[in-house]
Automatic annotation (TrEMBL):
Transmembrane segments: none annotated. The lineage of its organism: unclassified sequences, metagenomes, ecological metagenomes. This is Unannotated protein. GO terms for molecular function: N-acetylmuramoyl-L-alanine amidase activity. One of its GO terms (cellular component) is outer membrane-bounded periplasmic space. One of its GO terms (biological process) is peptidoglycan catabolic process. InterPro entries: MurNAc-LAA_cat (IPR002508), N-acetylmuramoyl_amidase_3 (IPR050695), Peptidoglycan-bd-like (IPR002477), PGBD-like_sf (IPR036365), PGBDSf (IPR036366). Keywords: Hydrolase.
């Protein structure tokens, strides 16, 4: 049961949790309120069939294990197989019964032990290291493009996705689109599709709308939770890169990057971003998005941001200066 909250209290909670700030109890907010009820030690945690156990207690367990070097993967607050495996490894290391259940004995062990890892969460270091070791060439990268399908954005963002796809294919990347021109799979289907394809990078493309026609600009979002003290290092870096490239190459207002806990970002295993490429409700943004030249500029912004994500710092170029032709001369085009 969700507590009775005023609209202002709901908005404050939504902002704290990285949710859409609406002031109303939508499904995502109700689930987050349910998660917030549980503190580590309130109940035994274990792997169960769908629906899996979830809550702030699971996220706290994952954070604690991660700090000690046990690989839970992303801190998502869901007690899945990877979390169970990390619990078993911890239990083995402290001589506890190895059953994958986080009960009183395991929780006491967690409380007694101090952190043995410093200098950054291991999961974040692993994510960043995996990106670096994949090398600068795009020929071995798997990139999933997720064109939105809400209202008037569908045709526009699909066209932008196709333009990005063509350029990525020319650079040797493997590219998947989560939908075609006519179909509209659900969010859970798109997440499952992405997670089943060994994806290196997931990009969700959208065009925003607002009741206020003066709202305009480009904003990017990556997975991050202030409540749990976690974020995607690579997702945040790519969000920053693509935001800067778009703002340098187009007339879109810079609405900055933001950490969010939306399911599309939280449950997708690969580094993931959502990009709102302007407002269709704003006359200036809508006019720009309607032109092929502007969509080409957006596509090139994405390509260069993707390449910069995999370049070493010493090989990187100033924002807005790198061109696709430069990739060939640098020897990183197939």
């Amino acid at each position: 049961m969700c507590p009775q909250l005023s609209p202002d209290e709901i908005r404050s909670f939504q902002q704290e949790r990285g949710l859409n700030v609406t002031g109303s109890l939508d499904v995502a907010t109700e689930r987050a309120l349910e998660d917030a009820r549980w503190k580590l030690g309130d109940r035994s945690l274990y792997l169960q069939q769908s629906p899996m156990m979830h809550g702030d207690d699971v996220a706290a367990l994952q954070s604690r294990l991660t700090e000690m070097g046990f690989d839970c993967g992303r801190v998502d607050g869901i007690y899945g197989e990877r979390t169970e495996a990390a619990v078993k490894e911890f239990q083995k290391s402290v001589g506890a019964k190895v059953d994958g259940r986080c009960g009183p004995e395991t929780i006491i062990g967690l409380i007694r032990l101090t952190k043995i890892v410093s200098g950054g969460a291991p999961s974040q270091l692993r994510e960043s290291a995996a990106t670096r070791t994949r090398g600068p060439a795009l020929a071995n990268k798997v990139i999933v493009l997720d064109p939105g399908n809400n209202g008037g954005e569908s045709e526009i963002v699909y066209d932008i996705a196709v333009r990005i796809e063509g350029r990525l294919l020319a650079l040797g990347a493997s590219v998947f689109l989560t939908r075609g021109a006519k179909n509209a799979p659900s969010e859970s289907e798109r997440i499952a599709f992405t997670n089943s394809n060994a994806t290196d990078l997931f990009i969700s493309l959208h065009a925003d709308s607002h009741t206020n026609p003066t709202a305009q600009g480009v904003a990017t979002y990556f997975y991050g939770s202030d409540a749990h003290g976690v974020h995607s290092v690579v997702g945040e870096r790519f969000a920053s890169l693509v935001q800067r490239e778009i703002c340098a190459r187009t007339n879109l207002l810079n609405c900055r990057t933001h950490a969010k806990t939306w399911d599309l970002l939280r449950l997708t295993k690969a580094p993931s971003v959502r990009v709102d490429c302007g407002y269709l409700s704003n006359p200036q943004d809508a006019k720009s998005l309607a032109t092929p030249e502007f969509r080409d500029a957006l596509a090139e912004s994405f390509i260069i941001a993707i390449q910069r994500l995999y370049l070493a710092a010493e090989d990187d170029a100033k924002t807005g200066t790198l061109r696709i032709s430069d990739l060939r001369s640098a020897g990183i085009r197939r």
